[in-house]
């Protein structure tokens, strides 16, 4: 399988190459040239598979001949053995047609573990075979950083630099990053917001000259195709458990950067019967504004109770736009160039196509707390603030009563005790056993100014792999 850029000018790559690339050389994002599809009979047969087996079924066509079947099987089994629940991604019913897909049973209690535990192992496998060392650079609004560090900490061929906005992530999120010890692990607290961190990552991928010539730069943010690929699996897993392919399923996805819900779109394109994909946003409602107005513009970032979604530039939406504009790379390149200079507006045809599958909801902090409290009162189920936004959006979306709606629960509530307290649940969430001593562990972190040069200089001076 080959991968092509959304902007049409970069060379096509195979899986191994795209794994080690991140942003395309033309500034675009890589997507598969063609998608594998599964018949109704093939989807029905998935009902007998455990999570690792299903992952191999879904992922094998994307990897193609870059990783032998037996090696991929071992990588996947090792990845999902790290999860604390035998089902890996269990579901909980909270209403007659409302379900919560728990994606927080990995090592760092967030959905990012599904992709980043796998990504770390894939990188380790490929780099060991190639006798190559790389630099990983990523920006996090909370969960990506800890999952990336946890997934890559064992990799001796990697230096990993994670940027997070200083004092703008929860205490649990910060400690999960800064307490992992290793000479190749570097936590950088940037005196800015997440968008500033993400902009530094993009700028660094566009000009990598600050690194030695023998060190390539690899992405762990969802610009890396392997992240999206891994997330497709749990859409199939949940839908099959609820009766697919004989029954359609809708999904409500808390999202800011559009990566997680784009995986659901790909699952739909691959044959999964998806009734609707509900984009659930917080007060930073860039995606809701796109869906309702067809306009894409930057607004000041507002800090919320759901910090992992405090994003104003949605990087992965470009991947959907590529399909909405009939895979016209030149058109996407022009749109993104125009976006660098101000607001842009999408065509009626493009937005009409998007609205056939997607709808959106914007949920305030007050509504988030109210939903956390309501769900707790009704069934004593504790939601984290991001998942609560998903549940609220699911309830407001108007999906037919005959269609089950699955909300992706993206994080464990213990990661956000302040939000749980503000919601007035009357009970404090507790960290799982393996993290009970988290606040007793020593931290290591560098606070840097919001300056690209300072960040790049620190990286160049601290390569230890």
From TrEMBL:
PROSITE patterns xrefs: DEHYDRATASE_SER_THR
Reactions it catalyzes: O-phospho-L-homoserine + H2O = L-threonine + phosphate
EC number: 4.2.3.1
InterPro entries per record: Ser/Thr_deHydtase_PyrdxlP-BS, Thr_synth_N, Thr_synth_N_sf, Thr_synthase-like, Threonine_Synthase, TrpB-like_PALP, TrpB-like_PALP_sf
GO molecular function, one term: threonine synthase activity
Record keywords: Amino-acid biosynthesis, Lyase, Pyridoxal phosphate, Threonine biosynthesis
Residues carrying N6-(pyridoxal phosphate)lysine: 112
Pathway of action: Amino-acid biosynthesis; L-threonine biosynthesis; L-threonine from L-aspartate: step 5/5
Occurrences of domain Threonine synthase N-terminal (ranges): 2-80
Record carries keyword Lyase: yes
Domain named Tryptophan synthase beta chain-like PALP: residues: 99-331
Gene3D superfamilies linked: 3.40.50.1100, Threonine synthase, N-terminal domain
Cofactor: pyridoxal 5'-phosphate
CDD domains on file: Thr-synth_2
SUPFAM superfamilies assigned: Tryptophan synthase beta subunit-like PLP-dependent enzymes (SSF53686)
GO process annotations (BP): threonine biosynthetic process
Record family assignment: Belongs to the threonine synthase family.
Name of this chain's protein: Threonine synthase
Phylogenetic lineage: Bacteria, Pseudomonadati, Pseudomonadota, Gammaproteobacteria, Cellvibrionales
């Amino acid at each position: 399988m080959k991968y092509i850029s959304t902007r049409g000018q970069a060379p096509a790559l195979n899986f191994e190459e795209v794994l080690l690339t991140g942003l395309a050389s033309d500034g675009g994002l890589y997507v598969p040239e063609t998608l594998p599809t599964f018949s109704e009979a093939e989807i029905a047969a998935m009902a007998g598979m455990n999570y690792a087996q299903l992952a191999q079924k879904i992922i094998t066509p994307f990897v193609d001949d870059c990783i032998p079947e037996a090696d991929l099987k071992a990588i996947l089994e090792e990845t999902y053995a790290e999860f604390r629940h035998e089902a890996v991604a269990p579901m909980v019913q909270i209403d007659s047609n409302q379900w919560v897909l728990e994606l927080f049973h990995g090592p760092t209690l967030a959905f990012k573990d599904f992709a980043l535990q796998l990504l770390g192992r894939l990188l380790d496998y490929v780099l060991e075979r190639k006798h190559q060392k790389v630099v990983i650079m990523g920006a996090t609004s909370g969960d990506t950083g800890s999952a990336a560090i946890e997934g890559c900490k064992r990799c001796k061929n990697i230096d990993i630099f994670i940027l997070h906005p200083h004092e703008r992530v929860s205490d649990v999120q910060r400690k999960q990053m800064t307490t992992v010890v290793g000479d190749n692990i570097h936590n950088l607290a940037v005196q800015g917001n997440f968008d500033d961190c993400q902009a530094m990552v993009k700028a660094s991928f566009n000009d990598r000259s600050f690194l030695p010539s023998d060190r390539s730069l690899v992405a762990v943010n969802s610009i890396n195709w392997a992240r999206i690929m891994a997330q497709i699996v749990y859409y199939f897993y949940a839908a099959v458990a609820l009766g697919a392919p004989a029954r359609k399923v809708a999904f409500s996805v808390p999202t800011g950067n559009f990566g997680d819900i784009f995986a659901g779109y790909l699952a739909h394109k691959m044959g999964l019967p998806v009734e609707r994909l509900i984009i659930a946003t917080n007060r930073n409602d860039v995606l809701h504004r796109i869906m309702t107005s067809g306009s894409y513009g930057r607004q000041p970032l507002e800090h919320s109770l759901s910090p992992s979604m405090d994003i104003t530039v949605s990087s992965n939406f470009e991947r959907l736009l590529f399909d909405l504009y009939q895979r016209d790379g030149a058109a996407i390149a022009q749109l993104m160039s125009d976006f660098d200079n101000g607001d842009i507006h999408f065509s009626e045809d493009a937005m009409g196509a998007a609205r056939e599958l997607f709808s959106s909801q914007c949920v305030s902090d007050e509504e988030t707390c109210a939903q956390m409290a309501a769900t707790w009162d009704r069934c004593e189920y504790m939601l984290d603030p991001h998942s609560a936004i998903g549940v609220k959006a699911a309830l407001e979306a108007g999906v037919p009563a005959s269609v089950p709606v699955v909300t992706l629960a993206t994080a464990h509530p213990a990661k956000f005790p302040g939000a749980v307290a503000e919601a007035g649940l009357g009970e404090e969430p507790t960290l799982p056993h393996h993290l009970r001593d988290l606040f007793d562990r020593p931290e290591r972190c560098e606070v840097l100014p919001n300056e690209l040069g300072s960040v790049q200089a620190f990286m160049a001076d601290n390569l230890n792999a």
